[in-house]
Amino acid sequence: MMSHDWLNESGIALSAVTEAGILLWDKKDSLIVSTKETYRDLVSEYDLVIHRLIKKKLSDTLYPILSEESDTVSSFLDTKTCWIMDPIDGTVNFAHNIPLYAVSLGLQHQNSFVVGAVFLPALKEIYFTHGNASAYLNEKKLTSASKQKWQDSLFACTFSSDATNAKRNNEYQLFGDINDNSRGCLRLGSAAVAICFVAAKRIDCAFGVNVKIWDVAGALAIAQCAGYTIYLSRKPNSFAVDFAVGSAGLVAQVQSMITALEEV
Amino acid sequence: MQDFIVIGAGAIGRGYIPWILPNSESSSIVFVDHNAKLIQDMQHRDHFYTYQVQNNALVKKKVVIKAACLPKDFKLSRYPNATAVFICVGPRNVLDAAKLVDGTSLPVICCENDPRSAQLVKNNTSIKTCYFAIPDVITSNTAPADLLQKDSLSVVTEEGMFFLDKAVSELGIHAVLCDEKELSKQWKAKLYLHNTAHCVAAYLGALANCTYLHEVMQIECLEKIVRGSMNEMLHTLKHEKTVPAEFLDWYADKELKRFACHFLCDPILRVAREPLRKFALDGRLLGAAQLCLSQGLMPENLLTGIAAALLFDCAHDNDQHLQFMRKYLVDPVFFTCIFGLRAGEALEMILSQRLDTITQNLQALVKTFER
Predict the structure, then answer these.
(1) Average pLDDT over residues B66-89
(2) Is the pLDDT of residue A70 over 70?
(3) What is the percent of chain A with per-residue pLDDT over 70, rounded to a whole number?
(4) Is A139 close to B329, i.e. CB distance below 8 A?
(5) How far is B328 from chain A (nearest CA, A)?
(6) Model confidence over A130-148: pLDDT tens digits?
(7) CA distances from A106 to A129, B47, B50, B256 (A)
């Protein structure tokens, strides 16, 4: 099934996220099944249904599936090629009827994200890679934005839901430094949505600290195919990552700020 | 001597615009295009020929090339005698083209199949003198083989008419100057009586492996669908009563004759290109279908045209991902997210219920005379 141009896998990903995502069009009251690591980290019944549906759609492919809702994830740490899924990225938004949530699926191959499909059901927006050479928002081809001055740039950030993180205050400091010296820094509640909005030229740079790889895998593949610069740093023996995506200049500066955070 | 800047040296830019300019002794053309081979050919020559169909014969016109360049090499300041700028690049590229002349106070004339193009330019550049024009003409981007052999840059056009905002009155070009109401009338006719049936013909022709549009009109069962879609739009527009019926009848009749003109050698792939653009919700396919429904008419032939368009598959087209999306998106998602239809609205319901059958019937029909 492995194809050189990843076209087949792109199609499978596109089909999987959209067929799963349309379940959310008829969203009834989202049933909170449980909280996860913290009271701020929710999972709804829809997360689990979508997880199962996408897993079924991918079952014919050769690749294992890493999902936020998998029971066992540790075995994926060394996997070279695998699907990475977040059934609903932005579940808190989803639970509160804020339309910024996404069904996200990416294919990682040898530390690169080669395929991505992200469906924002409430906004009726589908972001997807076409093979690994181009990316689209619905029918429109995505292309990278031109250079942007820092102070004219709009940012979006993502933090982990773990408020007990020892570097939390430094993360908030980072947010403040960027927010107060640019057009602003939004917190959209979904890393996948934020990265897709960069690809769609609505936001100039998205970044995240200590987020989970399944939050970003699909969207980063899309942004990369659209021609954006990606910074990704994986934490050892963990699924946590730091990332930044946007034009080269903005990413370089954000990357240095994130790296400085780690050194504090 | 007047210089005219023509951005987009394709069918309209190279083939038709020269015919409407003041005579060649007093005007010359600077061409700008992103096609490097085309520009290179033009730079090695000082002229080419465009042909116009007049009284069932081809009339030749020599077009003097003052200069030809790629967008990155173009500077308006090099042409102090420039009198006006024509933009003929396709609706998707209008803004990029306009930015090449940003800041100019020259008239910038958008010859695009989108009346919003002029306002788009004004909203996104400092150009205030941008005007919408309607080249009511079919121009091929090529020519018959014997003409191409003599001149590889040849193109063939009809006589046509050029409808232009009357605010641009002092250029001496051969145009019908119109107020807003007249331009609106001409655009409505062009969109629904020309563009709709023209692209239906192209997509049917693509399915039937035709090369040129006039070939479609020679296949009886396909000609019937094209004529049928034209009649559906004609009846719809008459029912709407916003444009005089006599004008509509005359327009529809002339269009069908134009489609059948074999002199043009108008490639199917040119007319059919960028099908996703043609699926705009207010455009020649979906918009036209919705207009029919709003006037109580079920556009059976137009629905067949839509089905044909959804089957268009050209690897070199800008919208070559259409078939990828058709394969991997279920219909509700495609109709909602790609077409922009709302679930439960009339056209969405009709397509959901009938598209599969219409498509199967169309494919069976095409098989009966496959080339």
Answers:
(1) 96
(2) no
(3) 88
(4) no
(5) 5
(6) 988 899 999 999 999 887 8
(7) 10, 53, 52, 50
Given pLDDT bands bounded at 50, 70 and 90, which one contains residue A3? low
Angle made by CA atoms B276, B278, B282, in degrees to the nearest 5: 115
Which of B324, B338, B343 lies closest to A130 in CB terms? B324
The dihedral built from the CA positions of residue B15, B321, B203 and B289, taken in this order, carries a sign that is: negative
CB within 8 Å of B252: residues ≥ 6 apart: B193, B230, B231, B233, B234
- Chain B residue with minimal CA distance to A139? B338
Closest partner residue to A139 (CB to CB) among B333, B338, B343 is: B338
E strand map for A28-149? 32-35, 42-44, 65-67, 81-89, 102-109, 112-120, 125-130, 134-137, 140-141
Mean pLDDT of the region B89-97: 94
Please tell me if residue B321 touches chain A, with a CB cutoff of 8 Å. yes
- The H or E element containing residue B28 is strand B27-32
Mean pLDDT of chain B: 94
d(CA A227, CA A232): 15
Among residues B241, B349, B230, B227, which one has the least CA distance to residue B295?
B241
| Nearest residue in chain A measured CA to CA from B276 | A139
Nearest by CB to B328, which of A14, A21, A22?
A14
d(CA B59, CA A96): 69
Stated pTM of the model: 0.91
Residues A44 and A63: their CA atoms lie apart, in Å, by 26
**Looking at residues B54-65, what average pLDDT do you find?**
90
Could you give the C-alpha distances from A10 to A17, A204, A239, B233, in angstroms and in order? 11, 25, 23, 39
The C-alpha atoms of residue A128 and residue A140 are separated, in whole angstroms, by 11
Q: What does the pLDDT read at residue A74? A: 55
What stretches of chain B show up as alpha helix (H) in DSSP?
17-20, 36-43, 94-99, 117-124, 145-150, 180-189, 196-207, 213-216, 220-240, 245-259, 268-272, 275-278, 286-294, 300-310, 322-328, 331-333, 346-367
Asked if A68 and A92 touch (Cβ cutoff 8 Å), the reply is no
B336 near A CB under 8 A = yes
Q: Which helix (H) or strand (E) holds A206?
A: strand A205-212
Coil/strand/helix, residue B27: strand
Give the A:B interface size as CB pairs under 8 Å: 45
Q: Does B281 touch chain A (CB under 8 A)?
A: no
CB A186 within 8 A of CB A180: no
How many CB atoms neighbour CB A18 within 10 A? Answer: 23
Percent of chain B with pLDDT over 70: 99
What's the mean pLDDT in B239-247? 95
Identity of the residue in A21, A124, A130 whose CB atom sits nearest the CB atom of B321: A130
Q: What is the mean pLDDT of residues B167-182?
A: 89
CA distance A111 to A1: 19
The helix or strand, by DSSP H or E, that contains position A177, with its residue range, turns out to be helix A168-179
What is residue A196's three-state secondary structure?
helix
Name the CA dihedral angle for B236, B239, B245, B247, rounded to a multiple of 10 degrees: -40
Q: Which residues of A touch B329 (CB under 8 A)?
A: 14-15, 18, 126
List the structure tokens of B222. Answer: 């396909």
Per CB-CB distance under 8 Å, the chain A contacts of B276 are 139
Report the candidate in B256, B328, B339, B248 with the shortest Cα–Cα distance to residue B290. B339
| Gap from A172 CA to chain B (nearest CA, Å) | 37
